[in-house]
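User:
Care to share a sequence and structure tokens?

Assistant:
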Amino acid sequence: MALACYLFISRFFLQSVRVAGQSMVPTLENSQQYLLNRWVYYLRAPRAADIVVIRDPADRRLSVKRIIATAGDSVYLKDGSVYVNGHKLQESYLPPGTLTFPDGRLPDQWLRCGKDQYIVLGDNRKNSTDSRNYGPVARRDILGLILP
């Protein structure tokens, strides 16, 4: 009974996760433990600025990223800045002077979220594989909200 309760709670409510990698530094540190709230997205849709665990579209492993744009939004990366729906994104969670450049092959980059799609970026913009590389993330690949 205890095992069944544990499995039910960790699958649908809360789960302990360990961040592996540098893509969310300085917001989340490598090897730190955090709680993953799996229940919240049964009650509401993911929102911009949420820090989430996703199933990475590139390799299907779990990854932690920040939602930048939601369904129907367009994102434009130019001159080190992020524009969402034509407005420069104010990212107070990043250290001052942090620049966001597109995928290394492009001078600027335009991304658009379709229905049930999200654009995600790591806070460590120089060391993150994210939507700049693999495009929008499907809602079904967002597993929950990180509680720092």
